[in-house]
Amino acid sequence: MITGLLFAILFIALALVFLAGKGDKLIAGYNTASEEERSKVDIHRLRILMAICSFIGAALCVFLGFFGEDKGKSTTAVIVFIVLTIAIIILSNTWAKKK
Prior knowledge:
Elements: H1 2-19, H2 35-38, H3 43-67, H4 71-94
């Protein structure tokens, strides 16, 4: 349970960094992209999306910290995590792109 709370604190700190407008170098793919590819991305929207992802990660860490022993609840949390990951990938490739 303590490990889950520590990871949740880490994710919340990361979300606050993204919301503060920093942490662009922490976004996988964006930090290695060329200037031409970066110009196609709306970085403000991508930061918001990454902050939301970090808050969800924190919530899942807390949830698994408290209910990790229960197989049914931990399986549900893993399924929710997979679905949200797919949704974030789709949103980062559609909503976070400049039009």
